[in-house]
Amino acid sequence: MRLPRFDYASPASAEEAVRLLSQAGGKAKILCGGTDLLPALKRGSKTADLLVNIKEIPALQKMEETGDGRVVIGAAVGLGRLQSLSRRQAVVQAASRVAAAELNNMGTIGGNILVDNRCWYCNRSRDWWRGKAPCFKRGGSRCYVFPSGRQCRAAASSDLAPALVAAGVKAEIVSPAGSRLLPLEDLYQADGTRPHRLTGEEVVTCFHFPPLPRGSGSSFNKVAKRQTLDFALVNAAARIRLDADGTTCKEASATVSGSVTFPTVLPLDPLVGQKITPAVLQEAADDAVKHIGFITHAAALDVPANYRRRVAGVLLRQCLVQAWEKAASEVG
Ligand SMILES: Cc1cc2nc3c(=O)[nH]c(=O)nc-3n(C[C@H](O)[C@H](O)[C@H](O)COP(=O)(O)OP(=O)(O)OC[C@H]3O[C@@H](n4cnc5c(N)ncnc54)[C@H](O)[C@@H]3O)c2cc1C
Ligand code: SF4
After folding, report:
1. Mind listing the domains of the chain with CATH numbers?
2. Which residues, in sequence order, are CB contacts of 146 under 8 Å at separation 6+?
3. For 77-91, what is each residue's pLDDT tens digit?
4. How far is the CA of 223 from the centre of ligand 1 (A)?
């Protein structure tokens, strides 16, 4: 497969990138590591007259910790650099599980958070689609995976997304109207054709991580068909903060993705104020997975929904136990 022809720009600032995107009137796309966008252009599932490369913008390369313990990470920071966030265990684990070495070296945190939703059908080549009626995601009016469905259920595929959502991260977005901060979970929506609430004129410039009080721990895990170079069938992340006594839960959050159309936050309120034990975490995981909505098998058609829901429960329990152990080791 060959790349189609396109113009190329390498702006020096996010504001210049926004200007270029606005002038292109919807016909430009942002390029960062390119590991998701360039294959999509080859397949013809995305088109662009202009690619705006934001990877060289210095402000998007920053990685800094503020005095109050917040961490700000530029959207063009490579996945490998996230390994230095040693106290943010779920982020480190998720970044290391993305694809395999070559793609991991090229991929960026921003590109990963905004990676497109996947579907076995939509990810076929231009030739494969020739003569077939397009589905919703390709501008048509039908779905091949859920023929009676009225919307696209392509699967959310980012490994970092559940880890960053569970960590309470906010995205900084620059648009023609200025800049704003958005909780990451609000960046996503339950629409496989348009999984991110960004207009084509907006650039995510950086991610704001909240301070990490003592007694915090987190964990990420993923199940895929292959151990490497494979998207998640299901992935999950959890975060726990313990009281100064090291046994009582002060804060807990969890997110699942991979088999849903957007990273889904699960309720863990009953954990807060409880003395944590493995049995308590098992019960919390069992209750939480009941809140996962529609499970989609669009990206791997041979793995059914009931198996995926069970895997989500197992992953969630494992993540909670590991997050608790890490939190306890900080206090003890
Ligand atoms: C074989 C293969 C295996 C893969 N396995 C995995 C996996 O296991 N887990 C996983 O999570 N991903 C996987 N990926 C997807 C991809 O490689 C990674 O998600 C990668 O981190 C994407 O980052 P990037 O910088 O290359 O994104 P790009 O391709 O540059 O961008 C991705 C999308 O985000 C948009 N975008 C990028 N940056 C911004 C920004 N700052 N603001 C607004 N929009 C932006 C782009 O326009 C594009 O639509 C795989 C890809 C391939 C080809
Ligand atoms: S799930 Fe979405 S991408 Fe897949 S066939 Fe249906 S409409 Fe197309």
Report:
1. 216-331 (3.30.390.50)
2. 153, 298
3. 999 999 999 999 999
4. 19
